[in-house]
Amino acid sequence: MIHRVYSKLFVVCEWIMHLLLLNVLFIFFSCAGLILFGFAPAYTAMSLVFKQLYEGEDVRVVRSFYTIFKSELINSNKFGLLYGYVYILLFINFLFIQTLPVSIQTASMLVLIAVTLLVMASSLYIFPLYNRFESTVWLLIKNSLLLAFAFLPRTIFTQILILAVGVICFYQPILIFLLGFSSVCAIITLTSQPCIQKITNTV
């Protein structure tokens, strides 16, 4: 009984160490790529390392992260820059709607919120799919949306968990540098991988 408790405690501590280390690596390599060009490959590397850990592989975290970052520096930015551009457009539109007459402001805001939720849902699955399948950018985006709708309750649950992490980090900003990014990536990995495995096994 005691051995089982210590074994579970060891696993928890190991995952916390992985979270801390991957968060530091993500921030460092994102900054090394001037954020604009470093965010996507750093997130891809973190996501793939989490996938390997989730599947029980023996992973050398730092070496694997660096290797993946270097190999995905160009390809992953196709998604990163595209989603970054879309999120910037959405933000600009949110600001623009504030200047519209009140009569059409509400309807426009509802449409924009719906589009934002779709983009957010797609972004939850795009990197897990990219890490597992070789495909074109648009096909992966389409499949990420289909996956989001196919597992809608899980998608909503994932968004709620990420929102909770965001709220916690807002009140405790130091957590952003300790666990903020890696915890979000871990949540997405743990919730998306069962969905992708289920789809893969049924094909």
Lay out the secondary structure.
Layout: H1 2-32, H2 39-54, H3 61-71, H4 75-97, H5 102-132, H6 137-150, H7 152-171, H8 174-202
Helix pairs in contact: 1-2, 1-3, 1-8, 2-3, 2-4, 2-8, 4-5, 5-6, 5-8, 7-8
Please provide a written account of the structure.
The protein has 203 residues and is mainly α. It has 8 helices and no strands. The chain is globular, with a radius of gyration of 18 Å. It starts with a helix and ends with a helix.
Key words describing this protein structure:
globular, mainly alpha, 8 helices, 86% helix, 0% strand, 203 residues
Which ranges are low-confidence, i.e. pLDDT below 50, for 5 or more consecutive residues? none
Helix fraction? over 70%
Number of strands: 0
Q: What general form does the structure show?
A: globular
What can be said about the biggest beta sheet?
none
**Beta strand %:** under 5%
SSE string:
HHHHHHHH
Mean pLDDT: 86
User: What Rg, in angstroms, do the CA atoms define?
Assistant: 18 Å
Q: How many helical stretches? A: 8
Q: What structural category characterises the helix and strand content?
A: mainly alpha
User: Could you give the distance between the termini?
Assistant: 41 Å
